[in-house]
Write a structure and sequence with these properties.
The chain is about 0% helix and about 55% strand. By secondary structure, the chain is an all-beta fold. The strands form two sheets. Strands 2, 4, 5, 6, 9, 10 and 11 form a seven-stranded mixed sheet that branches. The radius of gyration is 13 Å and the shape is globular. The chain starts with a strand and ends with a strand.
Length: about 110
Amino acid sequence: QVRLVESGGGLVQPGGSLRLSCATSGSIFSISTMGWYRQAPGKQRELVATITTGGSTNYQDSVKGRFTISRDDAKNTVYLQMNSLKPEGKAIYYCNARHFISHWGQGTQLTVSS
């Protein structure tokens, strides 16, 4: 059964850094495009970054140069390194795995506040 479990969220001051992790089970990681999405209170879920099985990445314009998505195929894990965090980044961050269908994790909360 497919499971995606996010971790690494928390409280960070503006300008700080944090790394999110998403561990994937179900033997689908190696054939899936992985992604990070986020949803702020009162807002729709939006794309943050994606990475293909070949390592090609795509980022939302607002996080380019600050966030880095990566994957470790041996560990079936995708990461999101977040630097220079801004208050606007406060949201629940969700992990996604897509091959024929999409699978979602439960989300991890990021709060950026002084």
